[in-house]
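Section 5.1 Outputs to date
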Amino acid sequence: MLYWLLYQKLYPFFHPFRIFRYLTFRTAFASLTALLIALLIGPWVIQKLHEFQIGQFIREDGPQSHRKKSGTPTMGGVLIVIAILLPTALWSDPANPLVWITVFSTIAFGAVGFADDYIKVVKRRSMGLTARAKLMGQGMAAALVAIALVALDQFKLFSTRLTVPFIKTWRPDMLWHWPMTVPHLALLAFLPFVLWVILVLVGTTNAVNLTDGLDGLAIGCTIIAAGALTVLTYVSGHVVFADYLELQRIPMVSELTVFCGSMVGASIGFLWYNAHPAEIFMGDVGSLALGGAIGTVAIIIRQELLLPFICGIFVLETLSVILQVGSYKLRNKKRIFRMAPLHHHFEQLGWQESKVIARFWIGALVFALFALTTLKLR
């Protein structure tokens, strides 16, 4: 909005407004705007959540030390979503379709999380939507994102070719190319890419959701992941850097740097209130929205194979749950960890919550830095 008004409309009449064409300037201001929005409206959101008695329900089988958190306002992810979307609308190019696809993904996954949180609050229970309903909602949102990207691929505004870390030349196309003699199979050409997008987005959203179990843990890891994506998005859309690093360049992808900057600023602002001891929890509306945003950006810049490193802690948390459940079912109720997800295991070992959080943040930073080093290790 500001980019359109101040640069595209008013720049010819007032030349100092040319500064708004620079992506780095707009990304920095989008991040600052998101931070200020989160800090300024955070107290009001917390107050309203208190008034509506939207408090966290603590599971009976959870750590005993978490009992005191019962009643802490949840669904604070609404604050995160607002603080991401408003600066994105203000500072990004409104004509860029990739930005709007990412915005749609954030809202769609956030809506699934909102429904889940709402049912938990109304029914006063630890489970909202059924697992099937939740996965169906996530799958539908991911499928719509995939279809939109396939449509852009037909207009050469997006590429379905996958970037493989450490390999310069091999970029497999996620679309099947059928011979012209079998046109009735044309729709199946989109199937691999659509299924891939569903797998990546559903996996990412649930990974962030599982990590959201300690004060500031998930949002701190999100800041690091979003920061790494900001760098990756910028270099992927930059002519010189993309050529030097031999990256697959998608020209319109550079505007997503503004979105990523907004996500960093909004996450820092939310951490102000979510830091231990937390005044507010993000809930599923926040964790699913953030997971959808992170996964969608990674898909658009064709770096989804780097997600296990960009989101290293999220992946470890998810693997710990999978291993725990698998061991319990296949090894006659034997457990690998004292409690899953992984952060609860370290709590059961006697680590203080603040120590677990800080050390997981360090781990997330190491993973993200490694992801960035792969840009040159090709």
